Structures are given as C-alpha cells and as structure tokens.
Amino acid sequence: VSADTIGVLKELEDNICREMLKPLSKKEFYQIACEMMKNSCSLEDRAVMQEETEKEGLNSEGKEVKAKILIADDNYLNLTTMGILLKKNGYEIAEAKKGDECVEKVVSESPDLILMDIQMPGKDGYEAAQEIRAKGIDIPIIALTAYAMKESIEKAKKSGMDGYLLKPIGKKELYDEVESKLKEYRKNRLN
After folding, report:
1. pTM for this model (two decimals)
2. Is 140:162 a contact under the CB 8 Å cutoff?
3. CA distance 115 to 83
C-alpha cells in the first residue's frame, strides 16, 4: 500500500460519522441516511428522502411505520407536538386543521386512526366524525378535548368517536390510547 493510499484512507477515516455493515438492505440504508441527513441537507433533498423512506415502509424519522395517523387540530402547537411524538414512536403522520379538511384527508390519505380535536373552525370534531361514519369508514377516532364534562364525552361517543384524550395530553397517555385503539381495531377486523 502506497503512502498516498494511506493518506487518503486516513483522511476518509477522519470524516466517517457512521459505519454501515454489508450486506445492507435498502430499508437499513434509508434509516441510516435519514438519521444522518436530517439536519444537513436541503428541504428538497429531505422531501425526496422522505418519499423514498415512505416507499420502504419507514416514516420521516427513519423508523418502521406502525400505522398512519391523521391528526386533526387547528392549534399549531398541539398538531406539531403530537406529530413529533408519534413520528418518533414509528407512526406516519397526516395533518388537518379543520373538520372539512379532516373528512377529505380520511378519504385521500386512508389513515389507520384519527386524533380529532373537538373544537375546530367550520365543521367541528363531532360533525366531522359523524360524516366519516356516514361514509362507512370505521377506523378508530379519538377525541381530543379540554373538556372533561360527562356531556362532552357522551357527545363524542354518539358522534362515532371511539375514545377521548383530555388536553393537555401526556406522552404516555397518547401512546397508550393510540396503541390500544389500533390493537382493538385490528383484532376486530380479523374476527
């Protein structure tokens, strides 16, 4: 081995930030690439990477997708926080800021579960849930509400919602309710 080759190898070694062991599946490559490129590439490159990872069954965090969740909430902070938490836990996320938009995205995005704010502009969560059920769509809908009153909870159930989470929502509560409703839904679909 020449001194030049050793110099090049040494320079490469100094710039290595992650090792990949062969054989490497496409899925493993995308996971590592997503992880490494998250903060060091353009928005356009990240969009391409996200599209590729979704084709491979991975979310934008490079995690294997457990399910697709539609979050319907007009509050940006709630929408963003839940989205980040769920992506980190392996879920693919779709978002809607209004009841009408939620109904449209249920049809176009085919989510496995909906997290639905009760109070949204235009069509509220109750009306959106009723419209989704009227279309024959039976995926779990979890109400998101700051109101712990019995009437609100009953109204959510009557409108076709399967559960509810009280705001502010804790991380464990969110994960537990989502996992529980998805497990129950999948079990019922098998029977």
Report:
1. 0.69
2. yes
3. 10
